[in-house]
Amino acid sequence: MMVTARNFAGSYTDPARLVTVEYPEERLPQIENARTFPFLVYDGENAQAGLRCVACQICEKECPPQCIYIVKDTTKKRDHAGKLQMQPKIFDIDISVCMGCQICVEVCPFDAIKMDVAFEHSTGDRFGRLLLHKEDLAKPNSYYQRIHPTEAAETDARMAMERAKAEAKAKEMAAKVAKATETFDPGKTPGA
Amino acid sequence: MGPHHPSTHGVFRMDVVLEGETVVKLKPVFGYLHRNHEKIAEGTSYLGSMPYTDRLDYFCSLTNNWAYALAVEKLAGLQVPERAEYLRVITAELTRLQNHTCLIGFLVQDMGALGTPLMYAFREREKILDLFEELTGARMMCNYMRFGGCRCDAPSGWLERVKRVVAEYPRFLDEYEKLFTENEILMARTQGVGVLPGALAVNAGITGPMLRASGVNYDLRKVDRYGIYGRFSFRVPLGAHGDVYDRYMVRLLEMRESVKILEQALRDIPAGPVMDSKAKLRGFRPKPGEAYGRIEAPKGELGFYLISDGGPNPYRYRVRPPSFINLTVLEDMCVGQKVADVVIILGSVDIVLGEVDR
Ligand code: SF4
Ligand code: SF4
Predict the structure, then answer these.
(1) CA-CA-CA-CA torsion sign (B320, B326, B332, B334)
(2) Interface residues on B facing A, Cβ-Cβ cutoff 8 A
(3) What is the ipTM score, two decimals?
(4) B318 bridge partner residues
(5) Which of A60, A107, A120, B46 has its CA 20 to 30 A from that of B206?
(6) What gap in Å lies between CA B196 and CA B219, rounded to an integer?
(7) Model pTM?
């Protein structure tokens, strides 16, 4: 009886016990590691042109409940390191099937898909709004930096390094080409 | 009784033949939650099955992860770094704490103490789930362990917070004991009820707290010493009669031992990487062979049996779930008891139907 009485009183007075949150007016702070549903990251201003995804379809293959659907586009575009890459024409995720496991994030070699922390996904439209398309999924890198600061900083650093490497390589290549053209004498056969 | 009776612990049904109020025959009926876990796992990659193991025993997703990871590690010969081993022990023991806490809450609720004790249990569980969420990103479907380690390291300050929760836990256990252990009603309803003799338990392959309540000293953490359990000093509490009361007591004492293990693990955890550098996620193909990984899950021996043919997904995948096998003696425990006791006996088995039906 004493134990019950103490707990009863405690639930009104002990600040550690006053845990009820008046959602939706009040919200708990988001945990940095939290994961709910994947989204696609894009760089720059344009959501479609800046999309990091190169439609390699690895996530589609690895997703345990098979809820990602990708169709490749016929035209290519350049990625952050300047390499020509594919891009997705269709990238859909079925939110009613996705189990929020984060496997797609882990297997993506291009840092293109990340976990969101938004959890208010309910909708009255049973058929349309549960299949999220590329347009709904695309969110800017700044959003990613805001919700997962530590992880995003690592990703950004890695991508910056890749870009610097690619640029250095391109410069080296350009120098080589320039040198080759300088010494190239059309009168001589190569190797002679 | 069931499948949606409030006390059947999930979608479980019992065909009971009664004589007056006495049970003369009992047949468990399950399969309502069956979702083809083993067959699905044979069609997905090794990594892809990891989130499915969360959904087996959804109270203890971290221990499920561990058993599966252990099986794959045996198959592929991966080494787990020190820090990851410690993180695994910490998360597994926290899982055990919250599982047993809730089980006792449910058990007392089955006896008719509606609400309050279960609320206390859930209050404590919340604290542990908060820790899980911070570490893994999810409260229940943690999907945290990977072959060759853990998915990520603990965020800064996390271990401190675990220490705080663990330090407070004995106080809560004292409170629990004060409420129940010498409670007359609890003793009257559980002592001598649902007796499971040790010999029968061994023959039926019962494991976990249920087996130990029958007086058989068998704990995989001591017998198999998987992971780094050989390094910790703790006792294995045993029961004497094998009745519901003993099962309750064994769990309570086991929680105190878990606190001890946690304290040691939190004290000794080293810094370092949490993943084996040889492990890879994409295109993981272990050599042909077979392996059985088993752990002492909160409910008993949880094992995964895998056969690899060298492909990207297991050729054969089989789970040995403790809940399912512990249910096999339900009839033996119930025959001769009153129908009101059946609910308590079922409660003391500690089942989660996600694991029974897979
Ligand atoms: S999200 Fe990543 S893994 Fe998926 S198709 Fe795009 S680049 Fe490939
Ligand atoms: S989070 Fe898991 S289930 Fe959801 S799309 Fe990614 S891989 Fe598939």
Answers:
(1) negative
(2) 44-45, 47-52, 54, 116, 120, 123, 126, 133-138, 141, 143, 151-152, 155, 175, 178-179, 281-282
(3) 0.76
(4) B305
(5) B46
(6) 18
(7) 0.84
